[in-house]
Amino acid sequence: MTIETDANQARQLAAIITEYETPLLEGWIADLIGRLMRRDKIAENELRQQASQFLPTLARALEASGNFNIEHSAWDDARHLLTDISQSRVRQGYSPIDTASFIFALKEPLFNYLRNALNDQPQVLADAVVSTSKLFDELGLLTIEVYQKTREQVIMRQQQELLELSTPVVQLWQNVLALPLIGTLDSARTQVVMESLLQKIVDTGALIAIIDITGVPTVDTLVAQHLLKTIAAARLMGADCIISGIRPQIAQTIVHLGVNLDDVITKATLADAFVVALKRTGSTITTTQPL
Questions:
Q1: Cβ atoms of 170 and 122 closer than 8 Å
Q2: Is 52 helix (H, G, I), strand (E, B) or coil?
Q3: CA–CA distance, 87 with 196 (Å, rounded to integer)
Q4: Do 212 and 223 meet the contact criterion of CB atoms below 8 Å apart?
Q5: How do beta strands 240-244 and 208-215 pair?
Q6: Domains and CATH numbers, the chain
Q7: Where would I find the H helices in 36-121?
Q8: What is the predicted pLDDT for the residue at 103?
Q9: What pLDDT, on the 0 to 100 scale, is given for residue 91?
Q10: First vs last Cα of the chain: how many Å apart?
Q11: Beta-ladder partners of 208
C-alpha cells in the first residue's frame, strides 16, 4: 500500500466518522452499555461521555495524520484519552477485556458504514476494512498495555502500603520504642522495617528499640541476618535494640545456625524486654494499692 493510498483511506475513514457521527455514536454506546458489568446510571453516563469525546478525537487524528500510525504526533490526543480511560478502568475494577472492548465494540458499527460508503468499490472496501481493523487492533492493544502497567503500579503501591501497615513502630514509653513483627521477614520487608524504625528514632530521640518477633513463625539464617542489619542501623542512629519473643524452638534454631547474638539483649516476652528497657533508660514503674 502506498503512502498516498494510506492517506486516502485515513481521510476517507475520518470523513465517514464525521458524517455519521451521531448514529455511529448511538450504535457504539448501545453495544458498550450492553457489555457493562455495572448497570447503573453513573457508569452509563461516564461511558457516554468517554465515547462522545473519543469519536471526534479519532476523526481528527485520522484527518491530521493522514495515516494509521498511532505513534504519529497527530494521535497524541487520542492516545492520551485512551490512557486516561484505561487507567480509570483499573481503579473502577474493570477487567482488561472490558477495557479493550471500549475500542473493539466500535468496529462493527463502523464497518457497516464503510460497507455502505464503498459497496460499489469492493477492492477499496477490502483494503479499508483491513487497514481499519489493524488500526483498532493497535488501539485495543494500547488500552490493554496501559491497563496492565497501571494495575501493576496499583498492586505495588498496595503491597508497599501493606508492608508499612504490617510494621508499626510504637512508642511504649519515653525513649522506648517497640516494633512488633508478624509474618515472614524478607528483604523487601526488612527495608521497610529499617526505614520505619530509623525514622521513628529520629522523630522521638529514642534510646531503646524493642524488636518483638513473637509473631515471626520461623527464624532462618536470612531472617537472622535481616534482624542484625536492622539492629546495626539502629545503633548507628544512637539506639540500642532488644529482641523479645525468643521461643525455645527459635533459640535452638539460632544456636544451630550459629548466628552470633552475643552483643544483643534477648528476652522471652515483650514485657520482660520492656522492664529491661525501663532500667536502661533510668525509668521505673510503681504500683499503688487502692485505699
A1: no
A2: helix
A3: 31
A4: no
A5: parallel
A6: 3-161 (1.10.490), 170-280 (3.30.750.24)
A7: 41-65, 76-92, 96-104, 107-118
A8: 93
A9: 84
A10: 100
A11: 176, 240
